[in-house]
Amino acid sequence: VLTLKETLENVIPQRRDAVKELKALYGNTVIGPITISSVIGGMRGNQSMFWQGTSLDPDHGIRFQGLTIEQCQKRLPGTGINGDNFLPESMLWLLMTGSVPSFQQVDSLRRELALRGKELPHYTEKVLLSLPKDMHPMTQFAIGLASMNKGSVFATNYQKGLIGKTEFWKDTLEDSLNLIASLPLLTGKIYSNITNEGRPLGQYSEDVDWCTNICSLLGMTEKNSSNTGNLNSQQSLDFINLMRLYTGIHVDHEGGNVSAHTTHLVGSALSDPYLSYSSGIMGLAGPLHGLAAQEVVRFLIEMNSNISSIALEKEIKEYLWKILKSNRVIPGYGHAVLRKPDPRFTAMLEFAQMRPNEFKNDKNVLLMQKLAEVAPKVLLEHGKSKNPFPNVDSASGILFYHYGIRELLFFTVIFGCSRSMGPLTQLVWDRILGLPIERPKSLSFEGLEALTKAT
Ligand code: FAM
Asked: Which family does it belong to (predicted)?
C-alpha cells in the first residue's frame, strides 16, 4: 500500500502543471469587482483566495473535494466495524490527495499517525505543566503548539539551507502529520490540566484510531477508571463515533474563515506548520468563530429553566420573541454564507435521532431538536436574518455536554483538533505550488475617497 506521501508524490506533477498553465493562459482574467463596501466590510464576497480542499455553497453547504457530507458518510472508510462513522484519517487523505482512500490506505495512515503521536516533546510537556490550571484552554492549546516549533523539521532544514523551494512541501507535510498526530496527547493534557490537576485521564494506544485516542485521553472511554463521564460501554462507543463524526466534518470550511485564513497567511511567510496553526488556533478562539458552540449550550440551559415544557411551542415562541425584541440574537441560527440548514448540523442532529433512548431524558438535547423546528418560523416572521436555519453550532456542544464534557470553553479545543486537517493540507499544497507571501494592498480613507472621484 502506498503511503499518503507516496500517493501525493504521484498527484503533484499533473497538478503543478495544471496550475502553471492556468496562470500562463488566463492570468489576466478578471474574476469580479471589489467594492468599497467589501474593503471596509471584512472582504465579504471577494473571490480572492486559492483554496483546494473544500468549497462552500450557500444552498448545499460544504463540499470536501467536491463530495457532500452525505457522500463522505457513504464513501469514506471507517474502522471496518458496521455502524462506525468514517475516520477523520479518511478525510485527511481525501483533502490531501483529492481521492477517496481505500480501507487499507486509511488503516495505514491511522497507524502512521498513531505512531507519530505517541509522545509529546518533553519541553512541550514541561511548558503545559507550568501553565495555570485555569488558563483558557485555547491559550494552552496555542502555547503547546507554538512550543513544538522547536522540533519543526521544516524550520530546521530551512535554516540550514538544506532544502530547495520545490521540496519545501516534504518537510511541511512531515511537520503537519506530526502536528495532527500530536493532538490527542496535547488535547488530553489540556483537559487534564483544567479538570484533573494535570494528572492523566486515560491511556494512549498505538493500535487505535486518532479519535479513540482523543476520547481515551479525555477520560471518556469505558475501560478507563478515571472516566469523567461515567459512560457505559455503549455510551463510550457512541461518544467515540460522535468524536469521529464531529472531527470528520469540521476539518475545513473553505479558506476565508478566520482559522483557515490565518494559518494560510502566517504560513505564506514560510513560518512552519506549528507556528502557522497555532496562529489559526488563536483566531478560532474568538467568539464570532469557534466559540459559538458554548453560547448555544448556555442558551439551551437557560431557556430550559425559563419554560415550563418543551412541548409547548407557544411558550418557546414567546421566549424567542423576548430575545429578539431585546435586540439579542438566537445563538446557533443564521450564517454569513449559507442559506439552508447547515448540513453539518443535520449530520449531528441525525446522530441524536438515531439514538432516541440515549437522549429521551435529556431536556437540553430535546430542546435543541424542538428549536430546529420552531426557531426558523420565528426568525422568518422576524424577517431580518438572511438565513433563519440552524448552523453548525446548534447541536455539537450540547451533545458533548450530554456525555460529560461540561467545561464549555473546552469545546473549541475539540474544534481545533478537527480544523487542523483542512488548513494544514492547504499549507502543504501552498508549498507544492510555491505560492508567494500574501500581501494584499490596503487603502486609507483618503485612498478610498480618491477612488470615488476617479469614477
Ligand atoms: N438571531 C437574531 N437575529 C439575527 C440572527 C439570529 N440568529 N442571525 C442574523 N440576525 C440578524 C443580524 O443581526 C442582522 O441584523 P442587523 O441588520 O440589525 O444588523 C440581520 O439579521 C442580517 O444578518 P445576516 O446578513 O443574516 O447575518 P450576518 O452575515 O450579518 O451574520 C451570523 C451571520 C452567524 C453572525 C448571525 O446569523 C448571528 O449572529 N447568528 C447567531 C450567532 C451564531 O450562531 N454564530 C455562529 C455562526 C457559526 F455558523 C459559525 O460561523 N461558527
From this structure: Belongs to the citrate synthase family.
